[in-house]
């Protein structure tokens, strides 16, 4: 559903069910501001806190604007296009949060509708992330606009929000910091950074130290370039899974770290064939091993990593005077950073 079509549909619902005499088509469409039109529409669709059904017909718009705690009603949700069951589920979700229904619930719904989501998608988004009920509508709109500026256009933006609505609960600074980190520290292009956020939106909540280590491990240890990382959706996979699957192949003689010229004595499997497949497929087609062998190897690797961490903790304690040295951003310093302690 396009944004324009959604706006027209919301206006149709409003005018078809409107009983407030002071709000008509000219009032809504006369506003030059799209957000104001949506906000005025939302005011009509949502009843005031604890109001009666007769008040719905006689409330003046100015009085409605003075009510800070408007609640969603079953009728308003039905008018928006939700079924009876969906309306009950949504109202239950809105009321079970922090001490009852949020005053921002109505503006949250409007923002999601204006984004282009249909009632079923809106319900799924709010069931996945009920925290959105407590985000101001203006903040939601700012965060959506920011994602558009990062390159998530219509279609991609709707898919990201549907798959990972938690991205709309994060401050703009956090999302922009991760996008800039991918470009500056990991040398991804602007388009590649956009593709990563689109395909792996949970990356915006990853620890930046772990994120950098995962990139450097894949780049230096496995010899994989940025384009293949994006194609294989590297950032959907945990660092432990990357290391474990790679090390298992390496110790079985099925993977080699490329030399300085990027050459190996064997043909390494593609990163997407290592990471972007189910464990059964990985074991059968790539590692050619049994699940029991892999489980034993995982336990062994967990012990090795724990020992490494303990040893590096001791080394870092002895060399703490060197911790304040600044690193350059060229490839050699990135490589030295990769050799540093794996952050937890």
From TrEMBL:
Superkingdom: Eukaryota
Region called Disordered, residue ranges: 305-344
Pfam family, one: mTERF
InterPro entries named in the record: MTERF, MTERF_sf
Any one GO molecular-function label of the UniProt entry: nucleic acid binding
Signal peptide extent: none
UniProt keywords, alphabetically: Transit peptide
Bias type Acidic residues, positions: 306-333
Segments traversing the membrane: none
Keyword Transit peptide: yes
Family of the protein in this entry: Belongs to the mTERF family.
Protein name according to UniProt: Mitochondrial transcription termination factor 4
Gene name of this polypeptide: mterf4
């Amino acid at each position: 559903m396009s944004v324009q079509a959604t706006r027209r549909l919301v206006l149709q619902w409003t005018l078809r069910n409107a009983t407030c005499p002071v709000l008509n088509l000219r009032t809504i469409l006369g506003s030059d501001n799209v957000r104001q039109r949506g906000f005025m529409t939302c005011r009509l669709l949502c009843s005031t806190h604890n109001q009666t059904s007769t008040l719905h017909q006689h409330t003046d718009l100015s009085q409605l604007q003075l009510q800070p705690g408007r609640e969603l009603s079953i009728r308003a949700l039905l008018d928006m296009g939700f079924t009876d069951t969906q309306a009950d589920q949504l109202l239950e979700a809105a009321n079970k949060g922090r001490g009852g229904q949020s005053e921002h619930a109505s503006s949250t719904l409007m923002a999601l509708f204006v984004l282009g989501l249909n009632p079923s998608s809106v319900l799924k988004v709010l069931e996945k992330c009920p925290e959105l009920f407590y985000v101001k509508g203006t903040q939601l709109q700012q965060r959506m606009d920011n994602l558009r500026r990062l390159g998530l256009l219509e279609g991609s933006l709707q898919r990201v929000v549907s798959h990972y609505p938690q991205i709309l609960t994060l401050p703009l600074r956090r999302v922009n910091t991760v996008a800039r980190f991918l470009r500056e520290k990991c040398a991804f292009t602007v388009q590649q950074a956009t593709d990563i956020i689109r395909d792996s939106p949970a990356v915006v909540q990853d620890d930046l130290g772990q994120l950098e280590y995962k990139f450097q491990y894949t780049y230096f240890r496995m010899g994989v370039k940025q384009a293949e990382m994006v194609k294989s959706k590297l950032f959907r996979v945990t660092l432990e899974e990357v290391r474990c699957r790679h090390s298992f192949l390496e110790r079985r003689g099925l993977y080699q770290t490329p030399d300085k010229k990027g050459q190996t004595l064997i043909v390494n499997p593609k990163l997407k064939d290592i990471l972007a497949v189910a464990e059964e497929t990985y074991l059968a087609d790539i590692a050619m091993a049994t699940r029991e062998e892999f489980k034993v190897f995982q336990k062994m690797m967990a012990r090795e990593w724990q020992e490494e961490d303990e040893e590096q903790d001791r080394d870092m304690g002895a060399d703490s005077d060197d911790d304040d040295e600044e690193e350059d951003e060229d490839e050699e310093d990135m490589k030295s950073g990769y050799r540093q302690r794996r952050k937890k």
